[in-house]
Structures are given as structure tokens and as C-alpha cells.
Specification:
By secondary structure, the protein is α+β, with helices and mostly antiparallel strands. The chain contains 2 helices and 10 strands, in the order H-E-E-H-E-E-E-E-E-E-E-E.
């Protein structure tokens, strides 16, 4: 069986890897599957001196880590795609939303740029923005928590 892929589409996916800083992209359509990956150069990071361990007064409960995990919060808005997230329409413009702001269902929360297209990410429901989990101009992965609305 011979599979052929559009070279232009593959070049666009490779460009997306470079633009977003991702290490790989995998697409599947029916019985066709393509995976593009790039090897990232190793980065030498200085390591801080070890810090003495101070034991906790009491063991943490199992519920505490789950509550701190934004992915498990019922009001988490997750990324529907891979791309670069932007909190405002253009550099220097005010952000679409800020912590403490009340939003209506369908209001634009941020943009995700994927393959030179800006996609509006809308509020799935009305509520108050409790936390913004990303920084503008940073790549995001599919299903990555973006912000929390309560």
C-alpha cells in the first residue's frame, strides 16, 4: 500500500513545529497517519545547591494535590488545539479578560494562533475569571488548561 502526502501540507506542519517550539505533531485521518518530530538541542541549565529538607508538621491529605491541579477544576477552560496563545488582540492592547472579571458565555477569552490563523477561544459559560494559567505568546498543547472560570 502506498500512501502519499501533500508536500506543501507537510512543510506547513514543519513550520508550525518551529514557530510554536513543539517537538512533534501527529495527525490521523482514517487509515492515514503522519507524525512529524524534531530533535531539540540539549540545554545546559545550572543546578542550584541542594536545600536542607524540612519535614512537614503533618502529612498532606490526598485531596489537597487534586484541588491544586487546575486540569481537574470544573471551571477549567482547556485548549481545543495546539498553537500559540495570546491574551490580547495585538501587542500593547489590553487583554480580553483579567482575573476577577465577570464574563458572559460566548465572550472571547483569548486567541490561539495555529498555522497563521487566529482562533478565538470563547467562554463556555458565564462566570468570574479566577485564574489565568498561561502567558501571552507562549505555545500551548491540546487540552492544556488555559484559565479557570467559576
Amino acid at each position: 500500500m502506498s500512501l502519499s502526502f501533500d508536500p506543501k501540507a507537510l512543510a506547513e506542519l514543519a513550520a508550525l513545529l518551529n514557530e510554536t517550539g513543539l517537538s512533534e505533531i501527529e495527525l490521523e485521518e482514517g487509515d492515514r497517519k503522519v507524525r512529524l518530530a524534531r530533535t531539540l538541542a540539549p540545554v545546559n541549565v545550572p543546578v542550584a545547591a541542594p536545600v536542607a529538607h524540612v519535614p512537614a508538621a503533618a502529612p498532606a491529605s490526598a485531596a489537597a494535590p487534586a484541588a491544586a491541579d487546575p486540569a481537574k477544576h470544573p471551571g477549567t477552560v482547556k485548549s481545543p488545539m495546539v498553537g500559540v496563545a495570546y491574551l490580547s488582540a495585538e501587542p500593547g492592547a489590553p487583554p480580553y479578560v483579567s482575573v476577577g472579571q465577570t464574563v458572559e458565555a460566548g465572550a472571547t477569552l483569548l486567541l490561539i494562533e495555529a498555522m497563521k490563523t487566529f482562533n478565538q477561544i470563547k467562554a463556555p459559560r458565564a462566570g468570574t475569571v479566577k485564574q489565568i494559567l498561561i502567558t501571552s505568546g507562549v505555545p500551548v498543547e491540546f487540552d492544556e488548561p488555559l484559565l479557570i472560570i467559576e
